[in-house]
Recover the amino acids of this structure.
């Protein structure tokens, strides 16, 4: 803890080769996204009266929310339980959560038939307290606001004492600086209110997402239909929080040519097997209690998908991360983290799509090329915005050793 | 006899129409209501001759694009099993019934207008409401188009106007609530030439159904579908064979919203659980603060 790292702006060119490819995919996806608003849902999706929900709900919204769980789990660990050594991962996790939820909202807009009414749930005359979806919607909206407030100090830090407007606007430099200083002080004092609120709101809507499909008891496959679904959703969201942080951190270090913080990452990975284990036990007990365990051997798509979800998403990564040797290698960490992420995403797809058996289906839903393009496009756009923001704002921490190395590199490469 | 039935039913409808008007606030939907006073329709599939006049009447009453009666006279449609669509709120299908002439009986399909509708409980903005009359009504103006009602419906009835770019609506049988308010019966019931559709309060209809079963036990399967299924429905069915050999889905007796709403209200009971969690986390945050300093702290 001697040389406490402080987050910095990434000093790289925005467009690398990889970034250009991602930008191309994003452009195609976004074009499809806007196309949807001109031609309607029938023209671009394979949704019908039997399958009202497709991958835009299962992946963009449900998986999106789950995979943004790094934000509240990290905040809880580092800021509420005050585990200081994890401080360096707070900001990247916060940024991911902020962008994740923003893109959940953007993705949802495409799926809503009357997207321009998206604000309706906020109006008291339309509040519907019995609706699980209402609770999810309200919590996500408030949480998104909280995330933006939590990100504000990073924006202030970037511009404080650096306000330098051109020309006549220069007169405003001092007042704006003063304003930023006051804002920073005020936020610093009340920020704990938002941090706790963020964790509470996350627990609420992560679990309520699991209640959503409980409304269709007769259509859901018994492997996933359980009144305990909210608890399972909350636990799996918590379990994927740190793996997301690890996954991103390693990817970012590759992309920005910095050393991954192996110590911090392998240390934070210790928690994951414990949560996965608890999740696994509750899931199995629930299946036994409901006498649904035998469906695993049913030989259907559902049973295979369930087995993959549990094996690759829960059991194997839990065993891997339990092993200190694997946990202490970047490759091991990355593989195990990716598996947990895959498992949770697959779980959401299973619950919202695979388990859903409409009564009178004529053909099974499979996403259209447009639906897939939008989903991949939105994920790519998120990556691009993330890259942009870590270049503009101090988000990612660099440890002392790497920093020296980089400075040397810069001195060689750049003539001042 | 036909005339007498209609007179009788009209009186029931007029009596109840006074109750209609103020739509109920959805938040109290789980409170126990006198479900017997809801209006409903008894569909006697044994008496149904498959003439499809109800489909035609529904088209005339509820669709902008109106078709001639002749278009509904084809029996070809019975070769497949159809579902209600955005442009037809009701369809008639056939099912095998060895006791019937030609071994087939007919079954009208439409929104069941549940006593405790899953769609109403699911709707994020209260665009779907259970009216005092018993009709489950839809307000397109409130709707955001999330289609959660379609996920929730245990009968898979609501249809969506996916083709509409800007103002798609959820479409389903309205129970002709606008007609009921005027003291009239639903268009399909009025058009039915046989004793296949009977309009009245649920209480009276259940009595009527039992008396029919009692009178001709060889004709009917002794069960009123919708009396208790999924908490009871406004539209109820008499069948010639076990209902599970028809299109009617096998459902539990518990109303669907009971499960989700009890989870939901449990989590939010007077906001105590969220506030307790907030307090607990605050306490942890405060009490672990010392550790931060002992570790060196972050701010100089």
């Amino acid at each position: 803890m001697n040389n406490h790292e402080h987050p910095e702006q990434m000093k790289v060119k925005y467009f690398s080769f990889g970034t250009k490819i991602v930008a191309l995919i994003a452009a195609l996806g976004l074009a499809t996204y806007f196309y949807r608003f001109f031609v309607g849902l029938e023209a671009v999706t394979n949704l019908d009266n039997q399958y009202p929900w497709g991958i835009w709900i299962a992946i963009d919204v449900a998986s999106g929310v789950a995979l943004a769980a790094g934000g509240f789990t990290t905040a809880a660990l580092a800021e509420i339980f005050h585990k200081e050594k994890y401080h360096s991962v707070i900001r990247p996790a916060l940024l991911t959560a902020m962008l994740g939820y923003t893109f959940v909202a953007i993705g949802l807009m495409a799926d809503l038939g009357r997207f321009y009414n998206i604000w309706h749930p906020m109006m008291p005359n339309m509040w519907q307290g019995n609706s699980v979806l209402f609770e999810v919607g309200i919590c996500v909206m408030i949480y998104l606001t909280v995330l933006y407030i939590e990100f504000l100090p990073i924006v202030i830090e970037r511009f404080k004492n650096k306000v330098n407007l051109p020309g006549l606007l220069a007169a405003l430099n001092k007042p704006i600086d003063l304003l930023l200083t006051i804002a920073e002080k005020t936020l610093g004092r009340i920020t704990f209110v938002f941090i706790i609120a963020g964790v509470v709101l996350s627990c609420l809507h992560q679990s309520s997402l699991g209640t959503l499909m409980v409304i269709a008891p007769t259509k859901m496959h018994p492997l996933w239909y359980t009144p305990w679904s909210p608890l399972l959703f909350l636990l799996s969201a918590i379990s994927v929080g740190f793996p997301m942080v690890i996954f991103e951190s390693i990817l970012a270090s590759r992309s920005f040519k910095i050393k991954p913080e192996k110590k911090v990452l392998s240390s934070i990975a210790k928690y994951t097997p414990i949560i996965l284990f608890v999740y696994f036990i509750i899931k199995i007990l629930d299946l036994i209690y409901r006498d649904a365990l035998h469906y695993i051997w049913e030989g259907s798509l559902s049973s295979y998908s369930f087995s993959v979800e549990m094996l690759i998403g829960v059991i194997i990564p839990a065993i891997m991360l339990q092993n200190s040797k694997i946990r202490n290698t970047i490759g091991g960490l990355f593989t195990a983290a990716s598996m947990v992420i895959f498992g949770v995403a697959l779980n959401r797809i299973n619950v919202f799509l695979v388990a859903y058996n409409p009564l009178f289906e004529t053909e099974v839903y499979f996403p259209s090329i447009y639906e897939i393009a939008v989903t991949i496009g939105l994920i790519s756009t998120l990556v691009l915005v993330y890259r942009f923001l870590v270049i503009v704002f101090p988000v990612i921490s660099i440890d002392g050793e790497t920093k020296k190395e980089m400075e040397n590199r810069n001195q060689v490469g750049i003539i001042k | 006899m036909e005339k007498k039935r209609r007179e009788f039913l009209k009186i029931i409808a007029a009596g109840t129409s006074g109750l209609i008007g103020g739509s109920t606030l959805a938040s109290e939907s789980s409170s126990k209501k006198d479900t017997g006073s809801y209006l409903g329709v008894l569909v006697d599939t044994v008496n149904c001759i498959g003439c499809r006049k109800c489909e035609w009447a529904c088209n005339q009453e509820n669709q902008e694009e109106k078709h001639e009666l002749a278009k509904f006279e084809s029996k070809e449609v019975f070769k497949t099993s159809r579902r209600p669509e955005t442009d037809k709120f009701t369809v008639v299908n056939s099912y095998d019934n060895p006791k019937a002439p030609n071994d087939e009986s007919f079954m009208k399909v439409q929104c069941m207008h549940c006593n405790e509708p899953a769609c109403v409980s699911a709707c994020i903005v209260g665009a779907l409401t259970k009216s005092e009359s018993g009709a489950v009504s839809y307000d397109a103006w409130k709707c955001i188009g999330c289609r959660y009602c379609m996920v929730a419906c245990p009968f898979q009835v609501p249809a969506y106007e996916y083709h509409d770019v800007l103002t798609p609506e959820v479409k389903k049988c309205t129970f002709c609530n606008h007609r009921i308010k005027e003291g009239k019966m639903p268009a399909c019931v009025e058009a039915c030439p046989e004793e296949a559709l009977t309009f009245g309060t649920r209480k009276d209809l259940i009595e009527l159904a039992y008396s029919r079963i009692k009178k001709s036990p060889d004709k009917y399967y002794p069960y009123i579908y919708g009396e208790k299924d999924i908490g009871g429905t406004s539209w109820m069915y008499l069948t010639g064979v076990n209902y599970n050999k028809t299109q009617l889905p096998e459902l539990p007796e518990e109303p669907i919203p009971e499960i989700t709403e009890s989870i939901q209200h449990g989590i939010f009971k007077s906001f105590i659980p969220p506030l307790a969690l907030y307090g607990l986390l605050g306490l942890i945050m405060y009490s672990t603060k010392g550790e931060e300093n002992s570790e060196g702290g972050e701010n100089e």
User: Anything to note?
Assistant: Chain A touches chain B through 70 residues (CB under 8 Å). Chain A has a mean pLDDT of 92. The two ends of chain A are 34 Å apart (CA to CA).
